Amino acid sequence: MHLTSASPGFSSEMLAQDLRTVIAVRTFWPVTIFYSIWLFIWIWIVSKMLLQPASLEVMTPGFILLMTLCSLGMLLGLLWQFGGKEIISIERDCLHYRIQVFGLGWSRRYALRKLQFLRVAPVAGGGAQYSFSWWPPVFGAGRGQLVFDYEGKPKRMAASLNAAQCEMLRQELQAHLQPRTPV
User: Fold this and answer.
1) Cα 154 from Cα 149, distance rounded (Å)
2) Distances (CA, A) of 75 to 68, 95, 112, 144
3) Tens-digit pLDDT profile for residues 99-130
């Protein structure tokens, strides 16, 4: 049986006994404009260096490398702003958390038997609530207000959702987890 529900900020569908929730990244326009300007300037610098090789003498290799790495990070952030998604799936015995940009991404799997205390908790630092959705959560325990403990360590998800949306998602996940595990 295929059921679909949608609420502000995320959409969920239930396929047989599996739940799949998709959270689209909230586009933050000031950051998107900053990333775009940065990349435009970097493209201008690179094209100038390619057209006038003598201008390479002015810039050190370390500066060029640093700017290239920063530009790649800005490009990833810009792609995340326009095509990023967090996908949370509850399958037979695991919670599957996928971060993807235009279909390409990485996944983490958490065994349901080790998952504890699903809750909504504010992000430390408070004021920059949506700053965590500016760039994909590549490293660490993730970001966002939806939190669970896994093997004694907190893991965060749903960086683009506010507290009320996270609570709605928590209730939906909790209802689906109830028969499977004591969360």
Assistant:
1) 4
2) 10, 29, 35, 22
3) 898 988 888 899 888 888 888 988 766 544 44
